[in-house]
Design a protein that fits this description.
It comes from Arthrobacter burdickii. Its cofactor is Zn(2+). This is Zinc-dependent alcohol dehydrogenase family protein. Pfam families: ADH_N, ADH_zinc_N. The protein contains 12 helices and 15 strands. By secondary structure, it is of the alpha/beta class. It has 2 domains: 200 residues, Quinone Oxidoreductase, Chain A, domain 1; 136 residues, Rossmann fold (3-Layer(aba) Sandwich). The longest helix has 12 residues. The two termini are 15 Å apart. The mean pLDDT is 95.
Length: 347
Amino acid sequence: MRAVCFDGFSARPVLRDVPEPVPSPGGVVVRVEATGLCRSDVHGWLGHDDGITLPHVPGHELVGTITAVGDDVRHFAVGNRVTTPFVCACGRCPECLSGNGQVCRNQTQPGFTHWGSFADLVALHDADINLIVVPPSLDSGAAALLGCRFATSYRGLVHQARLGAGETLLVVGCGGVGLSAVMIGAALGAEVVAVDIDAAALERAGRFGAARTVNSSGLPRDAVLEAVRATAPSGFDVSVDALGREETAAVGILSLRPRGRHVQIGLFPSDPVIPMGAVIGKELSILGSHGMPARDYPGLLDLVAADRLRPQDLIERTISLADVPDALVAMAGDRSAGGVTVVDLRL
């Protein structure tokens, strides 16, 4: 089969022929229909994830059709169209048994712990607790995006921060995951303010539900804070850092009202310094979101089915598998890249 591989961290990926995967006893093999290009793939390629062994095939947001099943699989069959959370749970550890498979201590992650979806076929483990059936009517790009950025944003806002209608939400960083947070916040009835350095990204945020936007290009942190606070003088109920920089996390935290909730979704290259004085003095909550277990997808899918949430509207570029090496390298060089790229394996 075809797959995009890299033999060294930061070494240019190449498209080559590799052996086809076989299903584990509890797993399946899926023929990939579409897969998202995510900044997490860039982090893995750059060597920021110590679980990756070389050579490696990245890719973790996907939709496709099952082509083979392991002997222990009971609830899925060849021909099912499915997606999966990028964190696949084992179903047996204390975290999984408490319903928190997204932090499973034995988790597998396609594109990280094993070869991923930038390939014609991908193996997924522990299928019975990790797969979600996708209706034929759901757009392939939208279905692929549900596995990572939309699921992570949805869990962060709904299950972690418990964002409610009428509350104020600040989203810092309007790339793919930031825009998904804007869309979800708007769908939940929150008043959303979006911050970015790129005018085009802010235009997208306005289109997808942000009531107000702040262009932070060239501004020092204090000036950004002043501009953000002017949009919500009493402070925000919830903030999201969707970029993963020390200064963007600080803007989110320092813009909160007393007892506000900050959700960290953007990944940091190294551990940041957090303004803990504000966290203590205002009794703020800092929450992470590491994806969402398959059993919690119905609420997200209900928003999509009701047309209150349209992940496909974020897709700005559709490329072929052969285009992935160039796209991955380009994304690594542009932290502000907006919109979403989807890889269509049928091209």
